[in-house]
Amino acid sequence: MSRPNPARVLLVDDDEDSRELMAKALRVAGHLVTEASDGTEALAQDLGGFDLVLTDLQMPRADGRAVLLGTMQRAPQTPVVVFTAYADAQSAMDLMGLGAYDYVPRPVDLTRLKVLVQRALEWRRLKLENTTLRDRPEDPHARHALPLVGTSPAMLDVYKVIAQVAPTPATVLLQGDSGTGKELIARTIHARSGRAGAFVSLSCAALPEEPLLARLFGVEDAHGVLVEAAGGTLFLDDIDELPAKGQGLLLRALEERSQRRGTAEDVRLITATAHDLHAAAAAGKFREELLFRLQVVTLAVPPLTARPEDIPLLVDHFLAHYASLLGRPTPALAPDARQALLSYDWPGTVRELAQTVERAVLLARGNAVLRADLPSIVGAAGHGGHPTHGLDSDWPTLAVVERRYIDRVLQHTGGNKTRAAEVLGIDRRTLSRLFARERHGED
To answer: Can you give the pLDDT at residue 383?
Structure first.
């Protein structure tokens, strides 16, 4: 088995044991490794003399960000890989936006490290060959990115794709269950894209066919969202619900758009679906040519079941967020309430968690959220099952409870049915059907 071409590697880590372990693995692989115990020692080196820089993020004195910036300034052709055990959405995407080749969570898997080194070296070789390729500058919109929450490996992969794709004109397809935060990711991509135009969102499931096509493509003197998003980003949610006629029109619009890139009329398209578009195309329900156009970059958005370690961060984030909207201090969370939130399986994923915390903040008395403030199905999760004792004939039917809850949500939203539908986790048409059913006396 042939050994990889040796590379000159600068390894920066204040953890001596970890540094020596990685250095040994890289030397066994044939590379020439120079070790530095912190960023200050690393920056004292001739950075232009290295083919690759591997650095920890959190270090005393100069940290990994300083090493990255110093390398970008003094040796812009040298890729930098950052190790981090404390990643969050903003810092992770900022590192990529600043020019980091990659970032990996700690502890670092040595097998993965060797593969990563080879990929980084190949990237450097291609970059040196193509001297006309400009280094990507820092995205001025990066610091304004919307708040994504989570530090799990699944979310770190999402942040990486966002940072890489945002500055490009590539069409993005977001694939994930309902409630995973696909629109938030689309907004984050737009915020980091540097585009001066607006972010325009439209759900293909929100309107009947003719109004939907009119809203999308325009009618008579009224512009559609394709025009409204000129110079910006158009986000089409539930793209699988776009009718056949609309699919043909959108395909033609995308073909025409390819001639306008770099102009004021250029629109960046991001679409989302909770379904398998390849299966839909195979069944003749979705145009294959359109699918090819939409999936230039496909990003799988993980459900909460794939990132359970993010739940505590999300709970604290939503507590602070909804308390702020209500003008209240962030409430404390009782230990049994926290345990219930961590034990529940969240079939409705992030949206269900957000709505549960919003409801709890609304119902909380004083400055504490108790288990009793949680829906019974969630509250029971931390106590080994769903409560069934105490039921009698005086309990209301599910339909009555449903109507009461909808009324309460509408009161909270000031009668705004669109916002109420979002809180309830349903679309506007479903909410309208519920009202129609009630008018006809159906329970």
So the answer is: 57
